[in-house]
Design a protein that fits this description.
The chain has 18 helices and 22 strands. By secondary structure, the protein is of the alpha/beta class. The strands form five sheets. The chain has an eight-stranded parallel β-sheet with strand order 8-7-6-3-2-1-10-9. A five-stranded mixed β-sheet has the order 13-12-11-14-17, sandwiched between helices. A five-stranded mixed β-sheet has the order 20-19-18-21-22, sandwiched between helices.
């Protein structure tokens, strides 16, 4: 490993640059900024232009990542030719960074040729500024020593992708085999930590440290929002499931922006789940900040039984190993000072259907979510019933087969053992042995769902078996609670309108006096982000109560 790279591992690099025509765009000013960064503990600097490199090199022996920005034909290029790289090297650069995106560059020289000449003639390391995973793979294959997603959000392909993306850092680290320097929209210490946890070699921070105008603007926006109604802002809604952590910015009327999913990696236990939570939360908060949205709280919906009073996980199955006792509020405080509200994910889905008008005319209903497991939320007279310990609505662990399949709760014959992602795959493999053997469960289930929606006979039959089992569980719910209706949601039934109709018919056929009280079973309109919407609904509700 090159000694310069070793000196930067898990360290901070500060970008000391200024926008064109900014008052900071002055060599002596930026030289003083760089001195401050070094005194603060920076292990490296990123600088623009040979002039700035030469001036700042007089003050430090730290590694300098150098670029030469130029505007050619109206297009911004980063170190567009070898002559620029040579000038940077002569001024004292340690690493040369250049645009290695996989797009047509009308001006300058081919980046692969520049990389080769930097190695052969200058003997320096090359950092590839890229925008996508494909860019990074090609840059690594083209000889770059370091890869950085600096240009993500600045190319035509990525211009609508806002904020910091730790999943891109993780993918680059895994697929390129090169050190990945996280650069671009790392605006808080928490995001820097998330970047390192995602696999970054080191982190570059610029505007959040070295641009007073940008820093001032963030304070001005926050002060301007003071005194506004809580419900005029937005909240972050987070849904933690056994397969993915979903997050989005949600408005008071249920509008969703910047939705994103991060694989839960539940097999890695609490650490893996928390890492996914960090990534989803950091990305969403950054997207809201970039869009100038005022966040007023964070709502979290998690699988497991939740103590809504203190925000901890009271109980959980092996779908989320090591999750019992996790304290959401304390953990999230490291990332954000916003108030945090926590609900069970299925109960949150019920709140989403209630608050955002997805079940018009129903004030007594049960929301059932079907995915990695089966969860439920009970609404009575327009309010959520949690129960003494938070277990209300745990319909997935009712017994439908005495001494039946083993359930991850430790019992046998539970509904969840027959209606779940794993159950769907097993039913399909009974018909197609060995199918999807090399694919993750989430991918296999998604593909079976796609096949079913397209009329595949085996996939349809697998869903039919699940409908048979689910109907028994729902008939029990109708018998015990006699609700106005049951609302189904979850990734497993997205796009499966035939499945919902099949379940309704089966429930009516086995329901006590089913002919006289035909069951109402609806497909939730909240979609795959029902948990996110529910988490947000809980946050808005409790924020509203606190403001009264």
């Amino acid at each position: 490993m090159h000694s310069i790279l070793e000196s930067l591992q898990r360290r901070l690099i500060v970008s000391c640059q200024a926008y064109p025509n900014d008052p900071m765009e002055d060599t002596e000013t930026l030289r003083r900024v760089a001195r401050c960064a070094v005194l603060g503990g920076a292990s490296g600097l990123r600088l623009n232009s040979a002039e700035h490199v030469r001036a700042i090199r007089q003050d430090t022996n730290l590694p300098i990542i150098a670029i030469e920005k130029s505007f050619i034909g109206g297009q911004l290029r980063i170190t567009a030719d070898f002559a620029s790289a040579a000038a940077l090297a002569a001024a004292g650069a340690s690493i040369i960074a250049l645009d290695c995106t996989d797009r047509v560059h009308k001006h300058g020289e081919p980046w692969r040729e520049i990389v080769r000449r930097i190695h052969d003639e200058l003997g320096l390391l090359v950092m590839a500024d890229i925008a996508t995973l494909r860019d990074g793979i090609l840059a690594a294959e083209g000889g770059a020593d370091i890869v950085a997603p600096t240009l993500h959000g600045y190319t035509e392909e990525t211009k609508h992708s806002l904020g910091f993306h730790p999943e891109l850092v993780a993918a680059l680290a895994k697929e390129t085999g090169k050190p990945v320097i996280a650069e671009g929209n790392v605006s808080t210490p928490a995001l820097a930590r998330i970047a390192l946890d995602a696999g970054a070699w080191s982190v570059v921070v610029g505007s959040a440290i070295t641009r007073p105008g940008v820093i001032t603007e963030t304070f001005v926006k926050e002060i301007a929002s003071a005194g506004q109604s809580t419900l005029s802002g937005h909240v972050v809604g987070i849904d933690i499931g056994g397969t993915a952590v979903k997050a989005a910015v949600v408005s008071a009327d249920g509008g969703i922006q910047f939705a994103n999913d991060v694989p839960t990696e539940a097999s890695k236990g609490r650490e893996g789940i928390a890492r996914a939570l960090d990534a989803a939360l950091g990305k969403t908060i950054q997207a809201a900040a970039d869009a100038g949205l005022r966040l007023v709280g964070i709502g979290v919906a998690s699988a497991g039984v939740i103590d809504a009073k203190d925000g901890t996980v009271f109980a959980a199955t092996d779908n989320l190993p090591g999750w019992v006792g996790f304290d959401f509020r304390q953990y999230i405080r490291a990332t954000s000072p916003l108030p945090v509200f926590v609900e069970n994910d299925a109960q949150a889905a019920a709140l989403a259907d209630l608050q955002f008008g997805k079940v018009h005319g129903l004030s007594n209903f049960v929301a059932v979510t079907i995915g990695t497991g089966v969860g439920g939320g009970v609404i009575v007279n327009g309010g959520l019933i949690r129960g003494k310990y938070g277990f209300a609505g745990t319909i997935g662990h009712q017994t439908i087969r005495f001494d039946g399949r083993e359930c991850n709760c430790g019992r046998h014959g539970c509904l969840e053992a027959y209606v779940s992602t794993a159950a769907l795959i097993e039913e399909y493999r009974q018909l197609k042995p060995g199918a999807f053997a090399d694919q993750p469960a989430s991918t296999a289930a998604r593909e079976i769902g796609r096949l079913s929606a397209n009329g595949d006979a085996a996939a349809r039959q697998a869903y039919s078996r699940l409908a048979e089992y689910l109907a028994e569980g729902l008939a029990n719910v109708f018998n015990i609670l006699d609700p106005d209706g049951i609302v189904l949601s979850g990734g497993l039934i997205e796009g499966q309108s035939a499945f919902v109709a099949d379940v309704q018919q089966r429930v009516q056929s086995i329901l006590h006096f089913g002919g006289k009280r035909p069951p109402v079973i609806l497909h939730s309109q909240s979609g795959r982000y029902a948990g996110v919407l529910g988490a947000a609904a809980s946050a808005f509700h409790q924020l509203g109560e606190a403001s009264q």
